[in-house]
């Protein structure tokens, strides 16, 4: 299988005044194309720090990060921006949508930087919104949608450029249980289509959708295990 992500002894130290926080002490992991991985671990263990480095939003203090066979530390700011835009789709816990823009405009936004014309952008954004079940909400603004619908808009925005990697930091952190499972259903479909997915979650039942679970603790990988029977499709929610 093709290796898409490789970190070698990645370290990240934040300096705050006279204090140093060693957010990542040494992390070496490999992720192949098409894998579905969950990062777990206690608060402060370094999950978001690692995700931000993998997503080229931040750089390690030491160590090597190889993305698609290229050493990220050799890349210029422009190259990094291009990778973030074309190769990586981000989904955040707080959705990060533009409040005054419609769903269509929110999803079309990354396509502006990618250089597509207006009609093409709208067509691509519409198709992607439709694919996440929001074809009938394209002109709504984020505050006119439910939490789950907002997250689906954010997922559509992450997908619209057809990125090779989807990074989701606690994508269900602000959603109720049923809506969380709907979003996981969507991730399951994306994975089936061949996307590489890495998500951070605190919840065991959400992590169980992933095919591999990496647990971090104190800036180190504590365990890295294959999930022999990932959850597929919807979980029946029992209501009494
Ligand atoms: N920008 C920053 N400046 C200084 N310290 C930081 C910064 N970002 C994170 N840290 C520290 O680095 C450590 C790891 O943080 P990180 O956000 O990666 O944890 P996490 O595993 O994502 O936690 P959570 O589950 O609470 O989201 C923490 O001790 C945190 O306080
Ligand atoms: Mg975090």
UniProtKB/TrEMBL annotation:
InterPro entries linked: AAA+_ATPase, ABC_transporter-like_ATP-bd, ABC_transporter-like_CS, MacB-like_ATP-bd, P-loop_NTPase
GO CC terms: membrane protein complex
SUPFAM superfamilies per UniProt: P-loop containing nucleoside triphosphate hydrolases (SSF52540)
Domain ABC transporter as annotated: residue spans: 5-238
UniProt GO molecular function: ATP binding; ATP hydrolysis activity; transmembrane transporter activity
A Pfam family the protein falls into: ABC_tran
Origin superkingdom: Bacteria
CDD domains per record: ABC_MJ0796_LolCDE_FtsE
Keywords: ATP-binding, Nucleotide-binding, Translocase, Transport
Residues annotated as signal peptide: none
PANTHER family named among the record's database cross-references: CELL DIVISION ATP-BINDING PROTEIN FTSE (PTHR42798:SF6), LIPOPROTEIN-RELEASING SYSTEM ATP-BINDING PROTEIN LOLD (PTHR42798)
Family in the record: Belongs to the ABC transporter superfamily. Macrolide exporter (TC 3.A.1.122) family.
Protein's name according to its UniProt entry: Putative ABC transport system ATP-binding protein
Organism field: Mongoliibacter ruber
């Amino acid at each position: 299988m093709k290796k898409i992500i490789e970190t070698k002894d990645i370290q990240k130290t934040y300096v705050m005044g006279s204090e140093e926080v060693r957010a990542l002490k040494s992390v070496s992991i490999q992720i192949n194309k098409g894998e579905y991985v969950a990062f777990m671990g206690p608060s402060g263990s370094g999950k978001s720090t690692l995700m931000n480095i993998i997503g080229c939003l931040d750089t390690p203090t030491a160590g090597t990060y190889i993305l698609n066979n290229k050493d990220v530390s050799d890349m210029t700011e422009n190259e990094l921006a291009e990778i973030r835009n074309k190769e990586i789709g981000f989904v955040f816990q707080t959705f990060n949508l533009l409040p005054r823009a419609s769903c269509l405009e929110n999803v079309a936004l990354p396509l502006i930087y990618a250089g597509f014309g207006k009609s093409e952008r709208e067509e691509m954004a519409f198709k992607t919104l439709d694919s996440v079940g929001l074809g009938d909400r394209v002109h709504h603004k984020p505050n006119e949608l439910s939490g789950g619908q907002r997250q689906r808009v954010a997922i559509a925005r992450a997908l619209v450029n057809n990125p090779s990697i989807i990074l989701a930091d606690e994508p269900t952190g602000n959603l109720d249980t049923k809506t969380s499972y709907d979003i996981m259903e969507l991730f399951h479909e994306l994975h089936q289509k061949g996307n590489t997915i890495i998500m951070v979650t605190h919840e065991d039942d959400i992590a169980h959708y992933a095919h591999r679970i990496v647990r971090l603790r104190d800036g180190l990988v504590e365990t890295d295990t294959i999930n022999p029977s990932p959850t597929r499709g919807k979980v029946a929610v029992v209501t009494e």
